[in-house]
Write a structure and sequence with these properties.
The complex is a heterodimer of chains A (203) and B (155). By secondary structure, chain A is mostly helical. Chain A has ten helices and no strands. With 155 residues, chain B is α/β, with parallel strands linked by helices. The chains are: A mainly alpha (203), B alpha/beta (155).
């Protein structure tokens, strides 16, 4: 994996973590409030560790870039306030993430650690998938997000693996490098503190 | 000049910031201690990568090394060298006594019968939530003594 791809992975983890954290306090079940908060914390922790491979200042890399410098896949940017879409995205993300993290494990010791934590995210996603997979709202959400999910992985072996795991057909992917309206919206929020206190905020 | 043994002993005084019943040494997150004249190099591995207590741990390690009159060099290593199997036997017992069920061994991670209630010792327990108040804990319920409890996740 080259630096540009590593940055893409780090940005995916940061933005999905940020989106997951939007459920803190308002999830439909108290258990999910706790789960989404914890998952968000883990994903943002993974982003930090990955940014540290690329820079001495993870915060600067995470928050001081302009919008067109972010390499995240459009899937993670989407603002989804509907539970079926939220779970569909979590499940698709975890299936794809396992494929790319497994491929990294031999060359990057950090990937082994990330994968151990992701085991719990996968159990959570699979539990919900099991529960909702026959629900029409969930199936529709998965199909709607499918082109975005394909965009998480490079075309070829990894994307083929995702097709086989999810059981949907190859379609045209919403590719990394393009952005949705969700990115400027979340960028504005997540960089607000850095922009308002460039010398560093004191808490 | 301090010895590595003295450093380990000193570091054992540092409680885990989120689970203060056990020390960082009991938790197994201190991977190595190397003494070079007045410099003490300590390798620290986080439990979870998103652990917010990491900076507090680093500062505590630096303070303890300084108390010994040495210069601290704390290095955070983000590899797979920490797992819950690294928690010492003493650490596991301290967790249990505090009502936090110690983690199951890695190999048995997904078998629920290995999860034992820290209050009554029953293995008839059920998962309530994979996630808990910190990334390293799950929530379980004991059918034996009708008590909810926190379970240290196996990592």
């Amino acid at each position: 994996m080259n630096e540009r791809e590593l940055l893409g992975l780090a940005d995916d983890e940061l933005i999905i973590g940020w989106r997951d954290s939007e459920w803190t306090g308002i999830a439909p079940l108290l258990e999910e409030d706790v789960a989404f908060s914890s998952i968000a914390q883990n994903e943002i922790g993974h982003a930090r560790a990955l940014y540290e491979l690329l820079s001495d200042d993870a915060d600067a890399l995470a928050f001081d870039r302009s919008l067109d410098e972010y390499r995240c896949a459009p899937l993670v940017e989407l603002k989804l306030l509907d539970w079926a879409h939220t779970i569909a995205r979590r499940w698709l993300y975890e299936v794809a993430d396992e494929i790319r993290i497994s491929a990294l494990k031999e060359s990057l010791p950090l990937a082994v650690k990330i994968d151990r934590e992701e085991t719990y995210h996968r159990m959570h996603a699979e539990m919900w998938h099991e529960r909702l997979r026959n629900a029409p709202q969930f199936r529709e959400a998965v199909e709607e997000l499918w082109p975005y999910a394909l965009g998480l992985l490079p075309a070829g072996e990894q994307r083929d693996a995702l097709v086989s795991r999810v059981g949907l057909a190859h379609v045209e992917a919403v590719e990394r490098g393009t952005h949705t309206d969700g990115l400027p919206e979340i960028w504005d929020e997540m960089t607000m503190v850095r922009r308002s206190a460039p010398a560093g905020a004191q808490w | 000049m301090v010895t590595a043994e003295q450093v380990w002993e000193k570091l054992d005084e540092i409680p885990d910031p989120e689970i203060p019943v056990i020390s960082l040494v009991d938790l197994g997150v201190i991977r190595s201690v190397d003494v070079h004249e007045s410099h003490v190099h300590v390798e620290l591995t986080p439990t979870f990568l998103g652990c917010p207590a990491l900076d507090a741990m680093k500062r505590a390690l630096e303070d303890k090394v300084r108390e010994l009159g040495a210069v601290p060099e704390i290095e955070v290593v983000n590899d797979d060298s920490w797992g819950t199997d690294k928690i010492t036997a003493a650490g596991r017992e301290k967790l249990r006594a505090a009502g936090l069920a110690p983690p199951a061994p890695r190999l048995l991670q997904l078998q629920s019968a290995v999860h034992t209630c820290p209050y009554c010792g029953s293995t008839d327990t059920a998962l309530e939530n994979l996630f808990g108040p910190t990334p390293c804990r799950s929530l379980r319920y004991c059918n034996g003594c009708s008590q909810p409890f926190e379970q240290f996740k196996t990592i």
